[in-house]
Amino acid sequence: MQKFISFLILAMLLPLITGFSDTEPEKTEQVADRSATLFPVDPLFVNSLSSAKEPRTHVTWLRLNLPVSSFNVGSVGFGDSFGLVRVPGWGETDSWQLGISGTVLAQFNMDSESLDLINADYIIGFPLGYRNGAWSARARLFHQSSHLGDEFLLLPQDPALQEPRINLSFETIELLAGWDWKGIRVTAGPSYIVHTSTPLKRYSAQGGIDYLLTKPVYKSTVYPFASVLWHFWEETDWDTDTTVKAGLNIRSPYAEKRSIQIFGEYYEGNLPFGQFYALRAEYYGAGINISF
Fold it and tell me: What range does the record give for the signal peptide (predicted)?
């Protein structure tokens, strides 16, 4: 636990160690290019910052409150999205973009002697994004498989987590739409499980609101943000899962995608950790997210 906290503190101090650059990039005249672009840097559609399954690289401390107990969790994620090609649409300003994305999401019991791995989710997908001005959309076909840790299976664990192992593996088609206006981003859409190795009900939906301050609060790189996401799944009787995040987005003046987010987080609902989706719980914590 002490090693994890030390790493988290070091990561939070990283921007202070390296310094905040307020140097603006050179202004160059840009000419509209309507030809196809290979390996575009930024996505056309940006999902809610509170989305638990979005490919991101992060390290987060969580205090997990179960029905009869509580313990500390180290949550880590390693992932990103990579644009393959962007092509112009039928209009003068719209574009389409195809990419590939992948992430590994893992949770560790920080109160156990060997920092037991509880669960790991592996997700790979193929997002197709679209944007026309303030409106955007994304269709993503993705595969998810979830696996319990060896120590978790072999050693005594919290009674609330002691459930028979299941082979949780499925493919989902996700359709999301978004609208941006003066720092406000609204996203919403349904998902459908097209194939599953475990009997699961197929439909789910989500809706979120993000606010990103359009003017920096320190030099030209630090922007506060807040985000709320609601998720509903037929398998859990359409119970509401709520995620709230808020923090600071420290981004490069040269590439908007390259940034560090320092945030606090609160969650209440069915756990988004692999096969524990039926377990109702809550957690709160703080973390660092790095966007390459």
Answer: 1-23
Cβ-proximal residues to 273 (8 Å cutoff; 6+ apart), any chain: 107, 118, 119, 121
Cα–Cα distance measured from residue 115 to residue 1, given in angstroms and rounded to the nearest whole number: 8
149 touches 115 (CB < 8 A): no
**Amino acid letter for position 41:** V
d(CA 7, CA 2): 9
- What ranges do the domains of the chain cover? 35-291
For domain 35-291, the CATH superfamily is monomeric porin ompg (2.40.160.40)
Q: How many CB atoms lie within 10 A of CB 62?
A: 20
Q: How confident is the model at residue 24 (pLDDT cuts 50, 70, 90)?
A: very low
pLDDT, one tens digit per residue, over 210-226 is 999 888 888 878 999 99
CA angle centred on 104, ends 45 and 232, rounded to 5° = 60
